[in-house]
């Protein structure tokens, strides 16, 4: 899955977009919608997620003891458990078993772990014929390609492409065309291979320590045939697959199919406790073989996992159940698939943790930046893994091991020694606070320089800032300047502190003014926080230490306001999400809880004011004005997106909300030359939804800075922040100076 070193990242990504993007998008988006539909009918969904999380936490905590218990169970059943240190150790053991039974053909059901250790290649080196029996894996084996998806490995291939492959490789009597043709042809070919095989190899979704039972969750019957038709069964699994008991399987069985492909339950759930006393079966003759010589070997593989277990930040990766929900829900993965958004074996958001732990930072670094931290995968993960944080941690570690170029251009910009190893683009975007201050202080000259063709070419060449993307236009008068002599509400009902994020303070100042006017119209006195930099910019670049420094400054500034009884109101959703989520990793518990419990997204706060008696006539009503609205990814993750829609509708606006979940901009991501095209590819789906006959005349509004920028680039009508719609046109008659 990794790119050739001689091929630029942008060229590789564009090639994948052009050749595989349509098929990947159609399939992953279908899986993702299926997940929504399926979990929507499961009343115990959140309960099952919490149970699954607790079981995995406990299992990883007690893993050495559970492996010892599992060994006793397997041996009591007459089987063998081998604990392999790494890929070479595991492969050597499997090769020995195959050699001892004079195995000439090995048939395999789908197993990511066997791909991780490159078992097929190891056996092929011994002249053993290895056949994948999963349909998708077999297609890729015939095509000599790597999987592009954890669950659906051939997701990038169309029916027409598979037909062309089969017709060329096998020259059938009649050309294969339909899906039924292809399936029946493959079934016949694989049946021949399975019935003549000597050894069957499977993976294992879960292995229970109490009985040695393996759970195989599949969409085809090939795993059962692989086990039943051969008298030697080798199961290959990572040590993290061990859970305590058979009873613990229930939440995982309920969740894995729904999370991965949107199925209430997958076609085959096989519970095997080998070796069984049943004989082998010849599927062609229906004749039974002898049960006396049946062997079972469970190969549990460490290969870096125990080190991950001891790593505070990578440990959560081991809770992964390989369902692919993080991939299916990710806008960038939906466009690219695992051939770009993946490493040697694993793909999607969780792949960064796996590849860093199993292969190393170099492999993880090849695709880690495709995770934008949008957090769409957070609610999708059935075991509640904080996947964006794992990606951020790995990015931080990659940064610290990277040699920077052209350091002299930005010496002194970063407030922390971690900047010493950063690439130039990350240093620039991570220090947006300094750039914003300089931009406003020198506007309009700074804006002229930013739009100058020579400057754009230089930024493109030395920092990878794509010249096709419009740069922010800094305002000379910041929100803080405007507020300096602002009269206050006399005898207010309450007082709040407004957090003026960097874009609101320096670029999109009008939305800040509108927010102040709305709050004042509802008899709220507004103070402005003394800080604007939340730490979101450096955190997005993997600069955790710098982000922590900003977070501590924010906490120190806002803490006294909270102590004085003032609520915190935040306009930018990504900053509000930072207060609610990531500050839990960056601050001490007390500081984090104080900010999280007392901060509100601006429309969440307005909704609360109106619900508690606020005068909605003080705000500008819609009188049926038609709105096309796009909410921010992180608004949805923390569950505050509905407040904007509700307030607008209650004020008389006709709101059509986009079904497209991501704008594709993702802060600095959309500015970078390597990722501009995938950013636009994601954004075009949203733009298309806002240019239909039903939406083309609607006023476009979006809650997030990135969403506004992307829509401004892609549409001919400028978007607005929704707070600008409801702000009174003037507000002087009800205010007096303190």
Quick overview of this protein structure:
The protein is an alpha/beta fold.
List keywords for this structure.
738 residues, alpha/beta, Rossmann fold, six-stranded parallel beta sheet, four-stranded mixed beta sheet, disordered N terminus
Model description:
The protein has 738 residues and is an alpha/beta fold. Among the domains are: 56-306, 3-Layer(aba) Sandwich (Rossmann fold), CATH 3.40.50; 479-726, no CATH class. The strands form five sheets. A six-stranded parallel sheet has the order 1-10-7-4-2-3, with helices on both faces. Strands 8-5-6-9 form a four-stranded mixed sheet, with helices on both faces. It has a four-stranded parallel sheet with strand order 13-12-14-15, sandwiched between helices. The longest helix is centred in the C-terminal third of the chain and has 20 residues, at 544-563. It has 36 helices and 19 strands.
What is the global morphology?
Answer: elongated
- The end-to-end distance, rounded to whole angstroms, is 64 Å
Instruction: Tell me roughly what share of residues is in helical segments.
Output: 40-55%
The radius of gyration is: 28 Å
| Adjacency order of strands in the biggest sheet | 1-10-7-4-2-3
Number of helices: 36
The CATH topology annotation of the domain at 56-306 reads as Rossmann fold
Instruction: Please tell me the overall pLDDT.
Output: 92
Structural class: alpha/beta
CATH architecture of the domain at 56-306: 3-Layer(aba) Sandwich
Q: In the CATH hierarchy, what is the class of the domain at 56-306?
A: Alpha Beta
**Number of beta-strand segments:** 19
State the major sheet. 6 strands, parallel
What are the segments in which pLDDT stays under 50 over at least 5 consecutive residues?
1-7, 402-417, 731-738
Portion in beta strands? 5-15%
């Amino acid at each position: 899955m990794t790119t050739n070193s001689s091929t630029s990242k942008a060229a590789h990504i564009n090639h994948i977009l052009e050749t595989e993007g349509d098929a990947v998008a159609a399939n992953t988006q279908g899986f993702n919608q299926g997940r929504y539909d399926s979990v929507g009918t499961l009343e115990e969904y959140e309960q099952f997620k919490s149970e699954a999380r607790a079981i995995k936490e406990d299992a990883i905590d007690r893993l050495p003891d559970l492996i010892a218990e599992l060994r006793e169970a397997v041996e009591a059943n007459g089987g063998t458990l081998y604990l392999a240190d790494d890929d070479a150790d595991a492969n050597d053991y499997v090769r020995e078993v195959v050699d001892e039974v004079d195995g000439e053909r090995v048939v395999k059901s789908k197993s990511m772990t066997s791909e991780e250790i490159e078992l097929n290649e190891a056996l092929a080196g011994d002249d053993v014929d290895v056949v994948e029996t999963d349909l998708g894996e077999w297609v890729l084996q015939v095509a000599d390609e790597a999987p592009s998806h954890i669950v659906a490995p051939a997701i990038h291939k169309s029916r027409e492409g598979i037909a062309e492959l089969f017709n060329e490789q096998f020259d059938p009597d009649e050309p294969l065309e339909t899906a039924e043709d292809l399936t029946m042809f493959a079934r016949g070919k694989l049946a021949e291979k399975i019935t003549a095989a000597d050894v069957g190899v499977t993976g294992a979704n879960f292995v229970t320590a109490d009985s040695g039972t393996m759970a195989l969750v599949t969409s085809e019957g090939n795993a059962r045939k692989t086990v039943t038709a051969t008298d030697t069964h080798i199961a290959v699994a990572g040590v993290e697959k061990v859970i305590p008991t058979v009873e613990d399987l229930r939440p995982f069985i309920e969740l894995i199919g729904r999370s991965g492909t949107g199925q209430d339950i997958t076609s085959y759930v096989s519970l095997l406790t080998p070796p069984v006393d049943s004989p082998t079966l010849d599927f062609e003759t229906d004749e039974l073989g002898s049960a006396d010589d049946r062997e079972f070997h469970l190969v549990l593989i460490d290969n870096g996992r125990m080190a991950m277990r001891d790593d505070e930040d990578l440990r959560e990766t081991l809770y992964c159940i390989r369902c692919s929900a993080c991939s299916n829900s990710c806008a960038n993965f939906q466009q690219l698939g695992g051939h770009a958004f993946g490493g040697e074996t694993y793909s999607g958001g969780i792949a960064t943790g796996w590849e860093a732990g199993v292969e190393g930072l170099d492999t993880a670094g090849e695709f880690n930046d495709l995770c934008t931290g949008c957090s769409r995968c957070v609610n999708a993960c059935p075991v509640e893994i904080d996947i964006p944080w794992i990606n951020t941690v790995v990015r931080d570690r990659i940064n610290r091991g990277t040699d920077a170029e052209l350091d002299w251009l930005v010496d002194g910009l970063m407030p922390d020694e971690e900047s010493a190893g950063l690439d130039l683009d990350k240093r620039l975007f991570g220090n947006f606070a300094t750039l914003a201050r300089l931009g406003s202080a020198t506007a309009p000259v700074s804006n002229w320089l930013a739009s100058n063709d020579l400057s754009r070419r230089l930024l493109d060449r030395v920092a990878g800032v794509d010249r096709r993307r419009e740069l922010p236009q800094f305002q000379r008068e910041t929100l803080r300047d405007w507020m300096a002599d602002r009269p206050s509400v006399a005898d207010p009902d309450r007082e709040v502190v407004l957090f003026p994020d960097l874009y609101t303070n320096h670029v999109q100042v009008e939305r800040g003014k509108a927010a102040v006017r709305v709050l004042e119209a509802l008899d709220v006195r507004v103070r402005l926080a003394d800080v604007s930099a939340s730490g979101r910019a450096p955190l997005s670049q993997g600069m955790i230490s710098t982000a922590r420094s900003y977070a501590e400054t924010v906490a120190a500034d806002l803490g006294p306001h909270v102590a004085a009884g003032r609520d915190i109101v935040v306009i930018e959703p990504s900053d509000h999400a930072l207060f609610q989520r990531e500050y839990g990793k960056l601050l001490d518990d007390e500081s984090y809880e104080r900010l999280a419990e007392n901060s509100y997204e601006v429309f969440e706060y307005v909704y609360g004011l109106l619900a508690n008696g606020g005068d909605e006539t003080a705000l500008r009503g819609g009188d049926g004005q038609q709105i096309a609205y796009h909410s921010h990814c992180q608004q949805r993750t923390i569950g505050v997106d509905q407040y904007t829609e509700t307030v607008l509708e209650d004020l008389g606006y006709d709101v059509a909300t986009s079904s497209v979940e991501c704008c594709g901009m993702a802060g600095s991501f959309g500015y970078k030359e390597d990722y501009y095209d995938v950013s636009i590819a994601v954004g075009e789906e949203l733009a298309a939804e806002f240019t239909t006959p039903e939406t083309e005349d609607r006023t476009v509004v979006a809650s997030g800075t990135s969403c506004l920028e992307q829509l401004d680039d892609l549409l001919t009508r400028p978007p607005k922040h929704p707070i600008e719609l409801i702000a009174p046109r003037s507000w002087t008659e009800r205010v007096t100076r303190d």
